[in-house]
Amino acid sequence: QVQLVESGGGLVQAGGSLRLSCAASGSIFSIDVMGWYRQAPGKQRELVAIITSGGSTNYADSVKGRFTISRDNAKNTVYLQMNSLKPEDTAVYYCNARRYNRLGQEDYWGQGTQVTVSS
Hints:
Oligomer: single chain
Shape: globular
Largest sheet: 7 strands, mixed
Radius of gyration: 14 Å
């Protein structure tokens, strides 16, 4: 099992910045990918950004150039730096840890943290 605890959400004005943190604990060995997803009211959960164990990153088109995902392996923590926030970034943000195995993949989720961007 992997436990994920997010922090750093809140209310910010459009154009502002927030940094989300996700601390992982438990059986964190061989986690292949960590990422951030978000879900706005009435919408499906969507990928925001991911980072692999090798440090490769990928972003949703809607956040490219504004958000940066990073990881501190010593602290078992993943960060999401969000700049130039827009009202459409308002959502609950979830941390995800994924481990691939012979049967497929294991996904672990945090409890979510609310990000609200006012216009």
